[in-house]
Protein: Transposase
Organism: Bacteroides luti
Amino acid sequence: MNTSFLYHAFGVCEQECSRVRYEDKSIIFEVQTRSEKLRCPCCKSRHFIRSGSTIRRFRGVPIGHKPVFLEMKVQRLECKDCHCIRQENIHFITGKRSYTNRLARLVVELSRLGTIKDVAHFLHLSWDTVKDIQKRYLQRHYGCPDLSELEYIGIDEFAVAKGHVYKTIVVNLLTGQVVYIGDGKGADSLDVFWKKLKKSDAVIKAVATDLSPAFVSAVMTNIPEATLVFDHFHVVKLMNDALDEIRRSVYREEKDLNKRKVFKGTRWLLLCNGKDIFDNQFKSRLDNALKLNEPLMKAYYLKESLKEIWTQVNKEQAIKELDAWIEQAYQAKIPKLTTFANTLKAHKWGVLAWYDYHISTGRLEGINNKIKTMKRQAYGYRDQRFFELKILAMHEKNYAFVG
């Protein structure tokens, strides 16, 4: 058979085909290495003695829907120069794999278009074989992200499973690449990342995170020269939680059934952006609820004015706006608002750091949503390392293999 066909079809260039047969609905090529291509696997010498042979079968790229196997007569060589006794090297496979490199590349290409199950069914391979090919490819290309170019990073956690099982991710905010995944959501989940960061000699200018004490202490301890920026989304979320608690307490304490009916079902109206309520019926219902309870009204308008902190012309104006807001929250004399005002005052420096570096954890929230979608598509992952590798490759859209 023409050797160029073996090369272009299966990536075989040093072997020759002596026979082709059809067996059990499969096409089998009987190949063996040409004599002039045989070399000692250790020193590449041509001075050797053939010391027996064995038959090995490798899975190749299918022809149509017919599975293809390369049945090779593998020589055992005894070198006269280095005296090693080993089987000849087989260039078209990796290690002791039972499939060719060309088939592995085909699996990688098809994995961009379908699930592991689809690819395995189409190529007549096992699910574990396709998954193993994907995992080795992802490990080789994305297993060790480069940290030397990092300047702006974001830190956040996401839930892996029920029962408070979390993982912490670190994202390059300029590229959207996940550069690290740690177990848990405490400060110790980032220990390995700090060690790798130190070895990479990267200079981190700013870090975006939520108000988690664990993340704050970890950043300030390991990279104190970096500016810590608290994400404004999480600050607003804390205010929304306080407003929702006030709404619940108002509903519980109200004895008038008619007033309780007005408060019931107003959670969405209170928490959404007031400028987005265009429906007159909804706006009237919100106004009625606010008129019936003064603490709820104060909390709602403070929630609306909180966003003004991030819309000022410069940092000096933002400081004045933040101080005025905290003072108004104290004057309202509502315990939940007082607690939130204390939290905001304690983290004032990190909130205002947004004016030094306009970064947030918005990219991380988007990545967390993609991770949730990926878990649902795969119905969960048994191999956590494979799961992490898919997350590390998520920024490359073409290589985000479906589970």
In short: The longest helix spans residues 232-253. The two ends are 39 Å apart (CA to CA). The chain has three domains: 3-100, 152-231+360-382, 232-355.
